[in-house]
Write a sequence for this structure.
């Protein structure tokens, strides 16, 4: 543990040292709306406000609304900070992820300094007054793709000085991109659009860019931000900071920006969090304290449950031969949970199937066989049954273009160059495989013959001749029990086969002994077979 903490501190110190050398110390204290650059949440303040590419908590409404897209549960955070000369700075934010997509956020920021003594033109005391600045906003963040999210905030900023009021309506926009694992790049455009009222000042557009990287198994996060105010000679100040989770419940933080050096810590227990930051400024030190609570059901859990419900409905639809309906349901399931590989696989398969065969629910034997093959393929990842089913359908109807195209599609998915079985013209797949099995039996290749006969039973489970020859193969391999079982099934489907019935009776009557191949042939296989 000591080694891990040492590594984290050294890494953070390295980043801070380089940031120190790069900092442009031009301040922004006199810029219009400057109080909105003071940050939100003691966690980010303890990291030197290098948070635009992290923004993974409720303070994302301030730092980068696109970060809201990555939140999984409702969260409330509140900050209270006593600054210099009695100035009080407060921030509160509530975020609410939705199962249908995106996350909404509501935030409020307030800078207050009271106790000013009012005087008239003759310097006589009138009344006390206050200077209050505030901003209230509504934010929304949404994933555009797995590695890219975007968001926006609409807020109202106001300034009250005694009985004078002014302010602005503002739109901020942000984006977050993760080009590789553990690396995040963020952009926030503040005051992108601003409309003032009263005696409000024109606000410069503030561009804030940053990047962050996680290391040490994601326990250490290093961040670097840079910002620029368009039309305002403020340079391009840097913000650098780091956060290290020394234990699952304790985080240590350090950071720096042009105005102050900060450090702090965070505590987490279950759904509750408490963060503290101390900042050293030219005007003195300040303490920042914020509390966070998570509540409600996980949106991920809700989405996974909804996706599962759509998936089950899709399964029922394709089993009934309603392939278009199944495709629509799988698309809904995928939109709820795109990380589920099984849903993605089913969607890929059904997209190709529905494009060729929108539905196959006429109750015919071919339709039932196709649906059974699809079930084996989709649910058990067994393409052999589907390939046999399609080859059987094509051998019975060589002009069935949809089945031919579907066979080619399945072959493409599975990487099979030629999935079509070469069956002689005028012969069905069943007849062909029965003949091949017989030839293999004559050549004493019993295992290969069994495989051909099992293929026949896949597409025609009631084929008596296939069971009859299967029994012969098993007996030739010395498996008397399986041979008897196969012959009994053959008689079940063809009770008129008296020859097999007599042979089976003889087989079960005599003492246990091995039958010769000639005896087996004489008993159950003749030229008519």
């Amino acid at each position: 543990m000591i080694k891990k903490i040492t590594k984290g501190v050294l890494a953070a110190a390295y980043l801070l040292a380089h940031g120190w050398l790069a900092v442009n110390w031009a301040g922004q204290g006199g810029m219009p709306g400057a109080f909105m650059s003071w940050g939100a949440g003691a966690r980010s303040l303890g990291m030197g406000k290098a948070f635009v590419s992290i923004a993974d908590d409720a303070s994302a409404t301030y730092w980068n609304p696109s970060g809201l897209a990555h939140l999984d549960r409702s969260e409330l955070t509140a900050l209270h900070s006593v600054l210099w000369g009695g100035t009080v700075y407060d921030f509160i934010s509530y975020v609410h992820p939705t199962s249908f997509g995106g996350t909404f956020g509501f935030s409020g920021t307030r800078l207050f300094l009271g106790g000013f003594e009012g005087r008239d033109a003759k310097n006589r005391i009138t009344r006390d007054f206050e200077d209050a600045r505030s901003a209230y906003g509504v934010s929304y963040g949404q994933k555009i793709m797995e590695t890219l999210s975007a968001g926006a905030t609409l807020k109202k900023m106001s300034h009250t000085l005694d009985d004078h009021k002014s302010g602005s309506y503002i739109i901020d926009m942000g984006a977050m991109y993760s080009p590789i694992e553990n690396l995040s790049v963020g952009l926030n455009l503040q005051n992108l659009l601003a409309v003032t009222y009263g005696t409000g000042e024109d606000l410069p557009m503030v561009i804030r860019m940053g990047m962050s990287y996680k290391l040490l198994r994601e326990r250490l996060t290093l961040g670097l931000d840079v910002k620029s105010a368009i039309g305002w000679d403020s340079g391009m100040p840097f913000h650098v900071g780091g956060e290290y989770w020394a234990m699952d419940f304790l985080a240590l933080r350090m950071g720096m920006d042009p105005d102050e050096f900060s450090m702090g810590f965070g505590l987490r227990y279950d759904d509750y969090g408490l963060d503290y930051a101390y900042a050293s400024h030219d005007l003195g030190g300040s303490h920042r304290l914020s509390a966070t609570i998570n509540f409600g059901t996980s949106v991920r859990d809700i989405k996974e449950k909804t996706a599962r419900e759509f998936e089950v409905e899709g399964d029922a639809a394709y089993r009934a031969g309603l392939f278009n309906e199944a495709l629509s349901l799988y698309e809904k399931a995928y939109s709820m949970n795109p990380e589920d590989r099984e849903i993605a696989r089913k969607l890929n398969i059904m997209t190709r199937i529905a494009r060729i065969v929108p539905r196959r629910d006429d109750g015919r034997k071919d339709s039932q066989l196709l649906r059974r093959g699809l079930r084996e393929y989709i649910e058990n990842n067994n393409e052999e049954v589907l390939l046999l089913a399609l080859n059987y359908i094509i051998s019975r109807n060589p002009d069935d273009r949809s089945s031919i195209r579907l066979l080619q599609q399945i072959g493409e998915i599975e990487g099979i160059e030629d999935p079509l079985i070469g069956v002689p013209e005028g012969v069905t797949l069943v007849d062909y495989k029965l003949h091949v099995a017989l030839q293999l039996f004559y050549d004493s290749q019993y295992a290969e013959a069994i495989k051909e006969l099992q293929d026949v039973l896949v597409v025609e489970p009631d084929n008596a001749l296939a069971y009859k020859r299967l029994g012969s193969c098993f007996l030739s391999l010395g498996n008397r029990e399986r041979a008897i079982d196969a012959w009994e099934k053959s008689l079940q489907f063809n009770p008129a086969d008296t020859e097999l019935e007599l042979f089976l009776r003889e087989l079960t009557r005599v003492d246990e002994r091995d039958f010769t191949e000639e005896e087996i042939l004489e008993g159950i296989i003749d030229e008519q077979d």
About this structure: The first helix runs from residue 2 to 22. Confidence is low (pLDDT under 50) at residues 1-30. The first strand starts at residue 74 and ends at 82.
